[in-house]
Specification:
The chain is mainly alpha-helical. It has a single domain, classed as Amino acid/polyamine transporter I (Up-down Bundle), CATH 1.20.1740. Helices cover about 75% and strands about 0% of the residues.
């Protein structure tokens, strides 16, 4: 019998995965073609599920409470911890920049006006909340993700009658690899898994089931969102998905989509911003106000220097930095399998070639994205 801890843990993973990244997936799928997009969605979905399960086993094999950097230090040494810390800080910065870009887009859909002006207003409000440590909104991230899931289903129901099947039959091999980074970013949520373990307290027997369900449901939701948006707007799909559907769907549906997208962006900005500020403040012993400045100024400067392509930012984060972290995760897993001090509630007995294959895929994604970007 699955209890309330199971559902709380599952919803935590779902809430972590379903976020701003999902809004960029229809655009890259529309560019490459729906069938190519589905190939990446389910292929990367399977890889993500496996990586989440690997992380879950690492956690179960290791006594005590740790996070990613702690596991890296324990099983790989100081170099692993430093590499995780380095990539994490840049992932935080890139995520904040992406939220700043999309926040302005959603505000423009809701209120019209200048996208630049709305991005600056969004930044001013969120940076002040980070300065004063406003946690109440940040703790609503899971709730916002539930609302986002509801909006995705609403858009699917409203959009189903106007889907044009011709939009789902196009292919452009020139953009074959374009969906990789965006979809990988949109489907990964390893940071939630240590939290899931704590939710289960001392009875971890259902952790594996929670990881599987919490990973598969967002893949399904992402799939129906992509089907709806690309089916409606085709080659006219906008980078944040919502704007392109203005002519096809009722105005209130678009507005609600933008509102909940904005709320999701806001809570994500606060969660990431507060975490980065505390990383500088607690871990690097930087003055509280300087830590806040370091957190907020970097994404603002990047935006002012015209780094405003949401798709490029998220794709780069997903393929390169997140890819590097997942390669380290596999290395950590292989060490934990041999030296872990606790018998886990589940154990994956995979052929070594599977791990080598995962590393090759992830490393290829890093190399491709670097070449594509620069």
């Amino acid at each position: 019998m699955l209890n309330k801890n199971f559902w709380a843990a599952t919803s935590t993973l779902i809430g972590t995965i379903i976020g701003v990244g999902i809004f960029g997936v229809p655009y890259v799928v529309a560019k490459s073609g729906f069938l190519i997009g589905l190939l990446f969605l389910f292929g990367l979905g399977a890889i993500t599920l496996l990586l989440h399960l690997l992380y879950g086993e690492i956690i179960l094999r290791t006594p005590g409470k740790h996070r990613y950097a702690g596991y890296a230090e324990k099983y790989l040494g100081l170099w692993g911890k430093r590499l995780i810390a380095f990539t994490s800080i840049f992932i935080f910065y890139g995520a904040l920049l992406a939220y700043l870009i999309v926040g302005g887009k959603f505000l423009k859909i809701i209120f019209n006006g200048s996208e630049f002006m709305w991005s600056m207003i969004f930044f001013a409000v969120c940076s002040m909340a980070i300065l004063f440590g406003l946690r109440v909104v940040a703790k609503m991230e899971v709730l916002m993700s539930i609302f986002l899931a509801a909006i995705i289903i609403l858009i699917f129901i409203k959009g189903l009658p106007v889907i044009n099947l011709d939009n789902l039959s196009t292919l452009d091999w020139k953009y074959f690899f374009l969906p990789y980074g965006m979809i990988f970013w949109a489907l990964t949520g390893p940071s939630a898994i240590p939290e899931m373990k704590e939710i289960f307290k001392k009875n971890y027997s259902s952790l594996k089931k929670a990881i599987i369900l919490g990973t598969i449901l967002p893949i399904f939701l992402c799939g129906i969102f992509v089907l709806t948006v690309v089916g409606i707007t085709g080659s006219q799909t906008s980078p944040e998905a919502i704007q392109g559907m203005v002519k096809a769907l009722e105005n209130h549906t678009i507005i609600w989509g933008a509102i909940f997208g904005l709320l999701a962006v806001t809570t994500s900005f606060l969660v990431v911003g507060l975490s980065l500020k505390k990383t500088f403040w607690y871990d690097y012993k930087i003055n509280k106000y300087l830590a806040w400045s370091l957190t907020c100024i970097v994404p603002l400067v990047a935006y002012l220097f015209n780094l405003r392509d949401f798709i490029t930012v998220i794709s780069f984060l997903g393929a390169t930095l997140a890819g590097l972290q997942m390669i380290l995760l596999i290395l950590i897993y292989q060490r934990a399998k041999k030296t872990g001090q606790r018998k886990p509630e589940y154990s994956l007995n995979l052929h070594p070639y599977i791990y080598y294959g995962l590393i090759i895929i992830l490393a290829s994604g890093v190399i491709y994205q670097v070449i594509y970007s620069f």
